[in-house]
Automatic annotation (TrEMBL):
<keyword id="KW-0030">Aminoacyl-tRNA synthetase</keyword>
<dbReference type="InterPro" id="IPR005148">
    <property type="entry name" value="Arg-tRNA-synth_N"/>
</dbReference>
<dbReference type="InterPro" id="IPR035684">
    <property type="entry name" value="ArgRS_core"/>
</dbReference>
<dbReference type="GO" id="GO:0005524">
    <property type="term" value="F:ATP binding"/>
</dbReference>
<protein>
    <recommendedName>
        <fullName>Arginine--tRNA ligase</fullName>
        <ecNumber>6.1.1.19</ecNumber>
    </recommendedName>
</protein>
<dbReference type="GO" id="GO:0006420">
    <property type="term" value="P:arginyl-tRNA aminoacylation"/>
</dbReference>
<keyword id="KW-0547">Nucleotide-binding</keyword>
<dbReference type="InterPro" id="IPR009080">
    <property type="entry name" value="tRNAsynth_Ia_anticodon-bd"/>
</dbReference>
<feature type="domain" description="Arginyl tRNA synthetase N-terminal">
    <location>
        <begin position="5"/>
        <end position="94"/>
    </location>
</feature>
<feature type="domain" description="DALR anticodon binding">
    <location>
        <begin position="451"/>
        <end position="580"/>
    </location>
</feature>
<dbReference type="InterPro" id="IPR036695">
    <property type="entry name" value="Arg-tRNA-synth_N_sf"/>
</dbReference>
<keyword id="KW-0436">Ligase</keyword>
<keyword id="KW-0648">Protein biosynthesis</keyword>
<dbReference type="GO" id="GO:0004814">
    <property type="term" value="F:arginine-tRNA ligase activity"/>
</dbReference>
<dbReference type="Pfam" id="PF03485">
    <property type="entry name" value="Arg_tRNA_synt_N"/>
</dbReference>
<dbReference type="GO" id="GO:0005737">
    <property type="term" value="C:cytoplasm"/>
</dbReference>
<feature type="short sequence motif" description="'HIGH' region">
    <location>
        <begin position="131"/>
        <end position="141"/>
    </location>
</feature>
Length: 581
């Protein structure tokens, strides 16, 4: 049940009737007609822009359209008033029975209330985290992991067929550095002093790998040249790092459907096949690029390179795919990887990158556009930096990692639920401050606590109902007399519940799961306000002494709140609190 869609349907029917009566010309498009919450709740329950968007194509005054439309809408039992405001906006007020019907729908559908079919089973690939397998995940990866995972859940909830994917960057020089770093820890395990030269990975996380290498090889590799152990240790260390990364992700509640190895693209013809596809489209050529911005001509050595004509698909400049020595640039395997995604039949692709990948957006979009002939959209979401604070000071780096704070550091401090929710309290492209003290505070300023407390309060109502002998199971609450829910504060909560299906579709359409966290905070606020009013006005309390029927109707409202909070937290990957201590 999407009440906003239903009322929009009512508006569209009224507009069609106006056309049939000659009050509006034929041939108008109603695509931009919207029904949404008014900016000021005092103006009504819903507002429509119908008159404003139709005035120009209809060659009429907006207010003239609005006046007739208001009369049509007022004839419907669901509409108690339709008032024209300003130049032609139309504010609607709905009957209490409409909001009571929302509660019935929530109780009937449970956490499926708000679940949408807007995705129509569209196959979407969401790639996120995709960290180099050279060490444990850091706090920046944590934000990307939470954002990507919540986005994937949001899209699945809105009717998409979602694949969660991790791209293992195991084809570049960094894995050679990992192997050399692991070799020094192997030497250390054999009683020698490790030589952690500049450029190697210094973290203690490699010590267990060194010990595992000793267990497997003894001291047989100590005196052998690098050429004899590099590839073996590269594979060994990469596998060990991926085991560590998988464990870190599991601790955060993230499970991938696919782990795709970059290394699988090399020497298999897959890079060549992807580039041949672009060649066949006339998009690969030999040429010389202009000097990069900021480079003086005398500092720039022009040389002929193999280039992808990415400017034909929206990029600023064409991009090299092969170096002058004949080896691939970093861009070439990325093209091949996305070619593989397109070939797997995905209808849409989403990549979640860190803030440092901003310069990669246009070229990657151009590549996917070219590979799919513009049929497969690619949305790239950048997650900005996270600043960690504790005791009013920046949180120190992790000794275990060597030079950064790990995902495990964060999860071990506050738990996965708090970590996930806090990471979604800002839009992905906005910097985020993560204060270990504040995220554990029990106050309204802490959105994690505020939302969980609302859910826990509902659970306490259900426990108190059981103690009082009041049946408050879902089947019983579905049959409660919801007509008793008529106080303005109660209807405010019901109205917020009505927004949930619309919010889900907007968040999914824009790929913005933070909207779910924001909505839950607002819903919790309305519920807490009702609860607090009940402290002074006994008729608003959820359990009414001696009146089982009224109690059940009010408990039904509270239960509906917990259902929607559970659904929203489920999308965010957070477990609803049953009680707060």
């Amino acid at each position: 049940m999407n009440l906003f869609s239903e009322i929009r349907g009512l508006v569209l029917d009224a507009l069609a009737q106006m056309q049939s009566e000659g009050a509006l010309p034929e041939g108008l498009s109603f695509d931009n007609v919207a029904v949404e919450p008014p900016r000021d709740a005092a103006h009504g329950d819903m507002a429509t822009n119908a008159a404003m968007v139709l005035a120009k194509p209809a060659k009429m005054k907006p207010r003239d359209i609005a006046d007739v439309l208001a009369g049509k809408l007022s004839a419907d039992d669901r509409i108690t008033s339709a008032e024209v405001a300003g130049p032609g906006f139309l504010n609607l007020r709905l009957a209490p029975s409409v909001w009571q019907g929302v509660l019935a729908a929530v109780l009937e559908k449970g956490t499926d209330y708000g679940r949408s079919t807007m995705g129509h089973g569209q196959k979407v690939n969401v790639e996120y985290v995709s960290a180099n397998p050279t060490g444990p995940l850091h706090v920046g990866h944590t934000r990307g992991a939470v954002f990507g995972d919540a986005l994937a859940s949001l899209l699945a909830y809105s009717g998409h067929d979602v694949t969660r994917e991790y791209y293992i960057n195991d084809g570049g020089a960094q894995v050679d550095v990992l192997a050399r770093s692991a070799y020094e820890r192997y030497r250390e395990a054999n009683g020698l002093s490790p030589e952690i030269a500049e450029g190697l990975y210094p973290g203690d996380y490699l010590i267990p790998i060194g010990e595992a290498l000793k267990e497997k090889y003894g001291d047989s590799l100590i005196d052998k040249p690098e050429s004899e152990w590099l590839e073996e240790l590269r594979n060994f260390a990469t596998d060990a790092m991926m085991d560590l990364i998988r464990a870190d992700l599991k601790a955060l509640g993230v499970e991938m459907d696919v782990f795709f190895s970059e290394k699988s693209l090399y020497g298999t013809g897959r890079i060549e096949a992807a580039l041949q596809s672009l060649t066949d489209k006339g998009l690969i050529y030999e040429g010389v690029l202009e000097p990069p911005k900021g480079k003086k001509p005398e500092d720039w050595e022009p040389r002929e390179q193999t280039l992808f004509k990415s400017t034909e698909h929206g990029d600023d400049v064409d991009r090299p795919i092969k170096k002058s020595d004949g080896s691939w640039t970093y861009f070439a395997p990325d093209i091949a990887y996305h070619y593989d995604k397109v070939s797997r039949g995905f209808d849409a692709l989403i990549d979640v990158f860190g803030a440092d990948h901003g310069g990669y957006v246009k070229r990657m979009k151009a590549a996917v556009s070219a590979l799919s002939d513009g049929k497969v959209p690619l949305d790239i979401k950048l997650t900005q930096l996270v600043k960690l604070w504790k005791n009013g000071e920046p949180f120190k780096m992790s000794k275990r990692a060597g030079n950064f704070v790990t995902l495990r550091d964060v999860v071990d401090q506050v738990g996965p639920d708090v970590t996930r929710f806090v990471m979604l309290t800002r839009k992905n492209d906005a910097p985020l401050d993560f204060d270990f003290d504040k995220v554990l505070e029990q106050s309204r300023e802490n959105p994690v606590f505020y939302v969980q407390y609302a859910h826990a309060r509902v659970m306490s109502v259900l426990r108190r109902a059981a103690e009082a002998g009041i049946a408050a199971d879902d089947p019983t609450l579905k049959g409660a007399d919801l007509g008793k829910i008529d106080h303005a504060s109660e209807l405010t909560v019901a109205k917020k519940l009505a927004e949930w299906p619309r919010l889900v579709e907007i968040a999914a359409r824009t790929n913005e799961p933070h909207r779910v966290a924001f909505y839950l905070y607002e819903l919790a606020g309305d519920f807490h306000a009702l609860w607090n009013k009940g402290n002074d006005e006994t008729q608003l309390r959820f359990i009414q002494d001696g009146d089982v029927a009224t109690s059940q109707s009010k408990i039904a409202l509270a239960r509906a709140v917990s259902v929607v909070i559970s659904a929203g937290l489920g999308i965010l990957g957070v477990t609803p609190a049953q009680e707060m201590r």
